[in-house]
Amino acid sequence: MVYNVIGTMSGSSLDGLDIVFAELTEIRGQWTYAIKASESLPYEPEWMEKLAQATTLSARDYLLLHTAYGHYTGQRILSFIENNQLDHKVHFIASHGHTTFHMPGNKMTAQLGDGAAITAVTNLPVITDLRAVDVALGGQGAPIVPIGEKYLLPGYQYWLNLGGIANISAQLPEQFVAFDICPANRVLNALAAALNKPYDDGGALAAGGVADIGLLEQLNQLPYYSAPWPKSLANDFGTDTVLPMITPMRISVQGKLRTYVEHIATQVASAVKALQAQLPEGGGKMLVTGGGAFNTFLVNTIGEKLAPLGVTIEVPDEQTVSFKEALIMALIGTLRWRQEDNVLSGVTGASRDSINGALWTSR
Ligand SMILES: Nc1ncnc2c1ncn2[C@@H]1O[C@H](COP(=O)(O)OP(=O)(O)OP(=O)(O)O)[C@@H](O)[C@H]1O
Ligand SMILES: CC(=O)N[C@H]1[C@@H]2OC[C@@H](O2)[C@@H](O)[C@@H]1O[C@H](C)C(=O)O
Q1: d(CA 290, CA 267)
Q2: pTM given for the model
Q3: Which of 125, 148, 296, 304 is the most exposed place for a label (fewest CB within 10 A)?
């Protein structure tokens, strides 16, 4: 079967909406993919602000934003369809939306972007709420990408995504596991903002700074890091716990960035060590994606910490780096369309594998 699907992802670094149009093919249980079109649409400052403030709103204003952001997403998808001449080619849309609250301990996760609005605007079937059933079944509801790594990007021991939050997946002998490691780009971006920069291009600022060892030790001691998987993070860990530890420090912005890069790399290495304890042998290849893969200094620092563990890093082509998550949302939506399991309980800790996604249609 061949499915022509639009997948969207609004990541936790708040940089914009990633959209892909993918051809997903299943033949006797084997999946292949081709990305036919992709666009990263940066958020206008007012949308960035609205999304950043979403968790502070009243219930009424939050729901109004949910609706408005659904219409906005629908319009962005319509323009994408027009720009890429995809009229009549798209079977359905899988829209992740933008995560606001993520409280799996309370069996709750919330993504903005009303599916009713998206289907009304695009006139196409829309699948949203891709984490909800897993969370209801006691799972973390994140990371959900491992099913896509398994089906679409095999051949690695580890998959690392350096997004707003860094997360890792690993193939263990019996099962896949995955968990969020630590806040990444969202914190780096907030630090770079002190110099009026949206992000630290290539990690050049961090490379020119000196790490503060005391701060680094404090960061590494946060209890989340020693907790066992399954585990996942919401944005507030970065903004309410991590950033307040860094911003008041009387060190240069470069020094703060350098310290945080060291922190990310230390936590990646520590995650790999914990995973290696479950593996018969060390070594293996790691696929690195997410916008942080463009931060050369960060990637090199991670590479240096992984070398003693025998793990080598591979950064794929730019399209895979930037659109892996949106592509996998398209796959997760496709599995939902087929009524097949699309979130792995071995990863999330839910009571069973499950079919996630609410289907919205307007005709
Ligand atoms: N050239 C670059 N140098 C350094 N950092 C970069 C560069 N290009 C992109 N980035 C970083 O990547 C970020 C975007 O990453 P990405 O799109 O993977 O995040 P996301 O999808 O929001 O995250 P998540 O996976 O957590 O949902 C930017 O905000 C920036 O921090
Ligand atoms: C709850 C939520 O939206 N989590 C995101 C977030 O952004 C990165 C990291 O934290 C990851 O766990 C997840 O997204 C990816 C796509 C996932 O679920 O695999």
Answers
A1: 17
A2: 0.94
A3: 304
